[in-house]
Structure formats: C-alpha cells, structure tokens
Structures
1.
Amino acid sequence: MNELEKVMKRIETCRETVIEWQKNLIAIKALAPESGGDGEIDKARYVRTILDKIGFDEIREINASDERVSSKIRPNLVAKIAGENQHRTVWVLSHLDVVPAGDLQLWQSDPFELTVDGDKLIGRGAEDNHQGIICGLLAAKALRDENIVPKYNIGLAFVADEETGSKYGLEHLLKTARHEFGEDDLFIVPDAGDPAGRTIEVAEKSILWIKFAIKGVQCHASTPQLGINAHRAAAFLTVELDKLYELFALRDEMYDPPYSTFEPTKREANVGNINTIPARDIFYLDCRILPHYSLDEVERAIAGIVESVEKKFNVEIDISFPQRAKAALPTASNAAVVEALAAAIRAVKSVEPVIIGIGGGTVAAHFRQAGLAAVVWGTIEDTCHQPNEYALISNTLQDAQVLAALFLS
Ligand SMILES: [Zn+2]
C-alpha cells in the first residue's frame, strides 16, 4: 500500500470517532451572546484536547476579549503539523459557534443531544460546522497515526463568532495574527457545499440591503383626496425597482444564479386598521450584485427611480443601508488551492468538480478581502440552521479523505 491508500483505509475505520466527536461537540452549546449564549470557550477547550491527543506540533490560542461572556474570551485556535516543506501551509478553517435551535416543536429530538439514525448524526451544529471541524481533525489524525509527514504544513484553524459577523473570529485572527497566514498558503473552508461535494465556491456577489421609508399624509380612507397614500407609492416603487434587473443585466455563468438579483423582502406593518390611509410605509430590498458592477452605480440608479416616484406621488422617500458589502476579488479558478482541491476531489470521489460563485455571506470572504486565496467546499445535505439538522457519517469520512489526499499532494 502507498501512503495515500494507507491513510484512506485508516479514515474508513473512523466511524466511531466521528460519532464520539459529534456527540461531545453537539452537547456543548456554543452560542454567541447575540443569540443569548455564553460563547465558545468550552467547545474550544474540547477541540484543544483532541489536538493535543493527535499531537500537533504547535497550538496557539488567539483569543478576542468580549465582556459579554463569562469567560470574557471569544476563543480562536490555530494548530499546525510541520510538513516536509515548511514554506507553505494547507489550512482548513472551521467555526466553533452554532445558531440557536429555533422552534423546539419542530425538532424530533433534543437539539443539543446527539441522535444517531443509521448514517445520520442529528443535532444542532452537526453539519454547520461540526462536520468541517471533524474532517480536518480526522485527516490530520490519520496522517499522524500512519507516521506520515505531509508535503506541506497542515494548519487547522477553529474560530469563534462566524454566525454573527466574525468580528471576534476570523476578522480578529486576520487583524492580530495575520503573520500566521502566508501568501502562498492554501485556504479551505468546509462550511457549505452540495450533496455530491462537487462545487468549489471561489466568489461571492456584493450584498446591498436597502431600507425605503415612504412618507405621505394620513387621512380617513373614505376621503383619500385629503391625504397622500404612502402604501400606494411604496407598492409602485417596489415594482419600479424591478427595472434594476434590466439596468444591471450582465450574466456570468460562474454564479448561481448567473445574474444580479434585486428582491423586495421585508415589509413593516403600517396602520392597524383598514379604514386609514397610511402616512408611512417601509420596505426593504435585498440586492446580490455581480462584482462586475460597483455599488455606487447601483445606488445612483436606485436614487433616480426613487426621485421619479417622489415626484409622481408627492411623497418623501428616505433611503438607508442596513448592509453594504462590496464583494472581495474572486479566488482565481486556476489558483493553487482550486487546482489542488479539484485533484483531490477527483481522486477520492470520482466526480468532476465545478467552480462556482454564490449570493454571498461566507467566512471565506474575509480571507479574500485580505488577499488570500480561499475556497468553500464540502459534501453536505444542506440542513444547516434548520430543525433536525444532521450530517452524514459517510460524507464526513469521505471529506476527511479528500482533505488527507490534499495534505499528501
Ligand atoms: Zn457555518
């Protein structure tokens, strides 16, 4: 048997390890203070015990302080195994925090206690992001157990605060420990994917959230001539904003969907009764914009549409931006990380990888903003944030094999 075969075999025997690690990870509720939790410290301590047992060469804690949690610490762990060539590190970054269980009525079991159902491991965080945590650990453990030195350094990073903005997590790491990460390093974030494990996400769209507040004049609904109906103006504006699809119609087949989107979403309640004409109407637009366009040009077009509606209905319209995030430059589709991961996927899973861009919002964007080539990948059932969230043992083992193949390549 060659090294790769030995490691693949070793990982295949790790079913019980996956179950044990999931059981312990699920039982530690790592919720951010924004979600009413006490942070990730206990989970970080548990992961650290596994890292110690595997025998990592270096383990560093790069903690962010946060007065809101009892430990005062939001933990980030960075662990390394030295490779033959120590000038490059292959990183796997996963996150320790989870989202709340949500409506308990919708769960068939206790969200914070592992339920094993054949290949399914059910519990909050099982998929998002315990599967990612476990894959990286298993791949590193298999190499260590077989006494194989990887070609490059193996780096595992476990971060806090991914679900609520990454300020205390990856953002903190990049701000205070940027030197840990080299320009030639490879960054894999196993935190999204598809059921076949084929898609390698290299790019995101820009995100623009807009709040429109329309101001008219209130009056009795039987005498509309005495007021100005903000609801009608808002409804008209909502439809007018569909013009954005024509104005910014560029297509790029790498993205799913392959065009920019401009969707009216939330609408706030206006008047409480049917026979009053509302003076105020508020709604929101969620825009996911291809990086080919600047946010300024989209905002200018929106301002033009708003102005025409203000004139037509004699209303005042205020615009504000709850979120405005310009997409980072995509990771090149021929970047070393993409080619190495694609080769490992082909070798282990016998499927042809597809390179994609998505609507936005993964932690990999922070790496890209810092000029580091990162990809998001995983074989997942897409149950994250849902009731009865689960991960498959078979996917976890195979994704660990892909990472191990990458560590050996
Ligand atoms: Zn996640």
2.
Amino acid sequence: MKYPVVIIGGGLAGLVSSIELARAGIKVLLIERKAYPFHKVCGEYISNEVRPYLEHLGLNLDGLGSAKIIRFRFTSPKGSALETPLDMGGFGISRYTLDQALYELARKAGVDFQLNTSVQNVVWQNGHFGIETSNLEQVEAEIVIGAYGKRTRLDKQFDRDFMKMESPYVGVKYHIKGNFAKDLISLHNFKNGYCGMSAIENEKFCLCYLTERSNLREAGSIQEMESNVLSRNPHLQEIFSNAEFLYDKPEVINEISFAPKDAVENHILMAGDSAGLITPLCGNGMAMAIRAGNMVAREVGEYYSGHHSREVLEQSYAKAWQNEFALRLKVGRNVQRFFGREVLSEMALGFFKMTPPLLSMVIKATHGKKMEA
Ligand SMILES: Cc1cc2nc3c(=O)[nH]c(=O)nc-3n(C[C@H](O)[C@H](O)[C@H](O)COP(=O)(O)OP(=O)(O)OC[C@H]3O[C@@H](n4cnc5c(N)ncnc54)[C@H](O)[C@@H]3O)c2cc1C
C-alpha cells in the first residue's frame, strides 16, 4: 500500500493535519492505535486561542456542549486561593467528544484510517518511508507525520535524546459530577503535584492531576495518595469527599517528560506532543497540537505545490515550529518549578496576589495569539 502522506497517531495534531491535507486534495492515511471514541488523560480545558479555527474547520463547539470558561483559580497546598479573570478564556470539552467530532470531519474530508493499528517501526530508505504496523501490513509513504503523542516505543527506535532523560511524572484523570462553578478552571497544588478541574459537556467536570512518581510509590496506591497527599489541600479534600466519580477506575499515564525534542527526526515531521509537550499547568497543549497540525499541513501543502524540496520542507517546518512554540515550552518548564512545592507555591501565590499583572503576563507568555481561521 502506498500513500503520499501517512500520519501516525490520531489525536488533535494528527486529526487536524489529516483534515487540512485531505481538503487540499492530498491523499492521506492516518494510523491510530485505538478506535474512536476513547478517553485520554488530559485536563480537557482548551484555550480560546484555537476556538475560531476549530469552528472554521467545521466543529460546532456549542452544539457539542462545550463549557465556556472565563475565570482561573489557583490554590496552594495549604488552601490559600487566588482568582483572576482569564483574558482570552477557553472552553471545556472531553477528548472523548472532541476527537470523535474531528474524526468524523476527517472521514468526510476523505482521509483513510487504519484504526486499532499501531505503527511499530518506520524506516527511511532511498527517499521513501517503509512503515510497519501491528496488522503486519507494509505501508509506503513519501511524507510521514509523527503525531503519536508524548512517548511511544517509536521514540526508542528513533533513539531520541529525551528518552535517555528521566520522565518522573504520572497523570491521572476522572470525570466527575458535583455542585461546582462551570465558568472556572482551578489549579490546586499539593505536595509534588497539581490538579486541574474544569467543566466539560453534559454537566460533567474533568478532574486531572500530574504528580511525581515518587508520591505514588510512597503512598502505595492512587487511592491512598488521593486521601493522604492530595486531600491535604482543603479544596481537593472537598472535591474528593463530595463529587460523584463517574469512572470505575481513573485513566492513568506514566513516564511523562517535558524535555525538549526535535520537530524533525529521521525525516519525520513531528507535530503535537511528539515534537514537545508543554507542562499541563499552562492549559495549552491541546491548542499547541491543533496549531502544529495546521502548521505541518501547510508546509506539506507547499511541498506538494512544488514550492519546497524535501530538504527545504524539513528546514522550514523545524524553523516555523521553533518560532511558534520553543519559548512557550521554556516558560512552561520554568513556571512548573514553582508548583507542587509547598513553600514555593505559597510564595508564588503571595507574590501574584501582590502583583496581579504578573500572573496575566505569565499566562500570556505560555499562550499564542488567536489563530486565524
Ligand atoms: C496530566 C495532563 C493534563 C493535561 N491537561 C491539558 C489541558 O487541560 N489543556 C490542554 O490544552 N492540554 C492539556 N494537556 C496536554 C494535552 O493533552 C496534549 O498536549 C495533547 O493531547 C497533544 O495532542 P497530540 O495530538 O499531540 O497527542 P495525543 O492527543 O496524545 O494523540 C496521540 C495519538 O497517537 C496514538 N498513538 C500513539 N502511538 C501510536 C502508534 N505507535 N501507532 C499509532 N497510533 C499511536 C495514540 O493512541 C493517540 O491517540 C495535558 C497533559 C497531561 C499529561
């Protein structure tokens, strides 16, 4: 089987790039390990930076029941709180619903899918890619877009530098119901971690936290950690005591890394988390993945219009990616140092209370301008 473009991974970056390429008349195969719809560890708050663009793609975000979010609350492990309006704001929608809606748009645009199929290796030879999949089919492609998320076995095969570094974080997510404000995103700190909560569709809320693996190891289990560590923050204690938890067990992911990555690796154009994951406290990874999906499709479109050679395509994409995202990732990594540290996050909160414009500046530095439709 031969395709001009194969996309590995059908999260936001993969789905958006597939829609754009198919609408530009380029034949695309998207290979996704799972089948839609499915849940993902993600805080499910999306910055309005990409709202007009998603609507332009054809998503009816109001129709899908997304919640409008206009306020941000930040609490320290001891429970002190700071609240601020969000200049740009955002919306809440589950990945279960959002990814399914984008998948439907991609199908309509003519994207071919192989679902429940995992890419196991990609080999670059004589100017073409050979792609090995779990269904043992060999696929050939001229261009491969790597949109497979934070970390997979492929990263090991490509010998990527970040795989040699420590990845000490664990992410946990629930959907819950309860009597909470719908227009507010909260970020509650606890020892060695932080937990976000915001409304999504159907009167539900997403509760999602990131913590160091050592916290879990010391506590012995997720439940013990939630009772003995997270619940020391009184705001989290209230949530864990009063909310209705809608899953039998949480969604969990391991070995999360925020180390820098390269946007082009082994001639593969990486988009979304596979090119670099911003710390979740910035609430902006999804907007970045959507933007990167659009950006990579634009560059590949230039290549197929004959404006770019492959070499220029790779250079131009790597440069565009750096210009758009490198600074945000750096600010995100630096800001994360203040979170989950009992004394530091208390100090940061006190400092932001005294100088509210500084908090707006940090939020701005981790977000982009509204994306043109
Ligand atoms: C704890 C936590 C909370 C977060 N909260 C927020 C938030 O509130 N707001 C926000 O904007 N961002 C948040 N993020 C970040 C956000 O989730 C990601 O940045 C975003 O999902 C990236 O999209 P993506 O398309 O790059 O990857 P993904 O959405 O992860 O998609 C990758 C896809 O590739 C598939 N795949 C993987 N390997 C293979 C393979 N070998 N073959 C085929 N398919 C494969 C996977 O099944 C998956 O569907 C959070 C992240 C974490 C860890």
3.
Amino acid sequence: MPKQARINGIKSYRCYTSSEAAELVGVSKRTLHNWTRDGLQILDCERPALIRGDDLRDYILKQRQSAKVKTGLCEFYCLKCRDSRSAYGAMADCKISGNRAMLTALCDTCETVVCKPVSLARLPEIGRTLDLTIKGDGATL
Ligand SMILES: [Zn+2]
C-alpha cells in the first residue's frame, strides 16, 4: 500500500521549493514532480519554482478523494480486493449500538471479512437486499 502524503505540516500561506514540499509531505522529489505534471500548481515565474502551501494541500486532498471507491448501500469495500464487493451469499451480521449499526459480511470474491457502519434508518432498506442477522442490545427493526 502506498504511503499517504502528510498534509498536517503544510502552511497554506507559505511557499515551498519542490524539495521542501517533498520532504514536508513525505514523498520523493520524483513523486512531487509527477504531481506538478498532473496538475499541482507551481509558481514558475520564480526560480526555483515554488509551490504554494494551499495549492499543495488542495492537490493532496483532491487526490485522496478520487482514490475513494464508491460502494452501494448493500456493498462493502474489501481491503483485499481494494474494490467494492457484494456480501457473500447476500448475508450480513448486524451489530447495533446507539443509532448506528455495524454490518459485517464476507467478500463475495475472496471471502475476506468486510464491514461498514450504517445508520439505523437505512437498515430496513438494506434488509430487502441482504439477509441480516441482528446482534445487539435488543433493538428491533
Ligand atoms: Zn475481496
């Protein structure tokens, strides 16, 4: 799994050279160079070229967003497949706590345990697709 770039130390009002920026977010200079080709704004009227802190942070956040996989209401994100998957046998365990429920199922492709939190309000809808086994503090649907 690739290391995630750090955004905590980025100061939005500061400008960084590409080596400073690479070190700050914990990526190689080559990765940073790829980012600038991929759309990260640089101020190249200056030498050396500078990167604004807020541009750098926005770029990394946008990149994280696009790496997210959309899962349907009755689908799960499988860490092993790294993709959205249906529940094996259309079955899921459902553990209720408060107004949240944790669904646990097996990936229909690799049978790895997958889980996701859902709101209690969605359970009746999910229950039409998945065979839910409720395990919890006695709450009923
Ligand atoms: Zn899987």
4.
Amino acid sequence: MALTVTIGCMAESEGSPESEDTNVAVWKSDLGVNFWRSTAADRERRRGAHRALMAELLPFGRDEEFTFVDLGAGTGAASRAVMDYFPKASAVLADFSPQMMEQGAADLAPYEGRYRYVEFDLAKSGRWPDGIPDPAQAVIASLAVHHLNDERKRRLFGEIFDRLAPGGWFLNYDPVKPPDPVTEEAWLRAGDRRDPDAAHKRAHRTAEEHLRYENHVRYMIPLEPQVGFLRAAGFEGVDVYWKELDYVIYGGRRPPVTRSM
Ligand SMILES: C[S@@+](CC[C@H](N)C(=O)[O-])C[C@H]1O[C@@H](n2cnc3c(N)ncnc32)[C@H](O)[C@@H]1O
C-alpha cells in the first residue's frame, strides 16, 4: 500500500514557521509543478475517494445547478470530483500559480463551460477577487490550507464564512500535524507498515525532496485549533467528517437565515 503518513522525523529547524517560506518558490515553479504532475495518478488513486466524500457531503440535489468555489484549486482534482458527482455544478477555481492553472486548463478540458480560474493569493488578507461569486453557494479546499500560517488560516475561515450564502458549506481536505509525540509515533507505525520503504525514504531525502517536505509541513498544525477557528468564525455543524492518520476532512455550514416570528 502507498505511503499515507507524510509527517514525522522533523528536525528542530524543519517545518518551523521560522524557516524560510518556500511556498511561492515551490508552487510558482516548473520544478514544483512538474513533480506534482508526475505524481498525479498515484495521488488520484489514493485520494479520489476522499474528494468524492467532499462532494457527497454537500447538500445539493444530484441534478441541481450550483456554483462552488475551490480555494487553492491547483489543477482541479477536487473540483473535478464535485463536478463528476453533480453533473450540473460549475466550479470557480482560485489559485495563485500560473503553472498549476495552465496544467489545470488541460486536465479540465472535458469540463469546458463548467469552470473558470480566478487568480487569488490566499496568503494575503483583504478583498477577495471580483471573479469569486458573492455570495458563494459552497466553498471547498483540498490540500491547500496547510500552506497558510495560523493567523491566515484563522482569518481565511472568517472570510469564507462572510462570503458564504446562508446555509452554505465549507469543507477542507488537508493533512494535519500530530498533536503529541505518542500520536506521531502511532501514525508513523501504521504508515510504515503500509509502506515498508517509508522509513528509509524519510531518512534519505534528496535536496529537492527535502525542500518539498519542508514546504509541506512548514505551517501544518494539529486538527483541534483548525476546528476551533471554524467554530470561532460562526460555523455550525462543525465536525471532522473523515479522518485517517494525518489526513482529515473537516467543515461546517454558515447558519441559514432564521426568520423572526
Ligand atoms: C498540494 S496542491 C493541491 C491542489 C489541489 N487543490 C488538489 O487537491 O489537487 C496546493 C495548491 O495550493 C496552491 N497554493 C499554495 N499557496 C497558495 C496561496 N498562497 N494562494 C493560492 N493558492 C496557493 C498551489 O498553487 C497549489 O495549486
């Protein structure tokens, strides 16, 4: 079975917010994006069902027309899962990487007319781009929020809440950091049993693999504070809807407008 656990064996300086933020360098580079493309089939095999669950969690009828927003959409893997499940749904894919959007345009060719890209740097606070629907009927994110620092995660969840239509859902599929060493050990134990080469790979990363790994874990935090950010923003129905070791889907909805009697 393929490697699931991606955290672990962090040296003191690794993955800390103090280390240089390489997010832009990784995602706005041909090197980073070519690697992402080269591993897409394996990722789809391991992660396809999780993205399908995000679609199943959305409260729309199978034949309903609606538009959702995919934050940090990349080449559109999560958007495609939602559009496959809801054949009349349309996607607004927000990302800051021209390289990922260019590759996404190729991957999304079968969905022509049902999607558009909007350039959006999620790390920056402030006004959202006009191309993002206001209000948004639903917002999803897949493997992107962990690239933002804690304060930006917290603020972003508030901005998503404000942008959502009443009753609208936000779902986030992301890796999380273990909350303590005992949990980390258990996650690694299970991950290493699934992939007997995992421990060796962790200990023998090339410089390029090390850069990618550092970027992957730099702002990764445990699950609990993130669920807390959602609750603090005002979401209801906040839950961890799926979890396996270090990967989770959590979310909630903006309360519907209640009519006064
Ligand atoms: C690991 S990929 C995930 C892509 C896609 N959501 C998926 O599930 O396959 C992370 C994506 O987040 C995007 N990203 C990272 N930091 C970002 C930022 N500050 N603003 C917007 N997009 C960002 C990257 O360009 C990349 O497309």
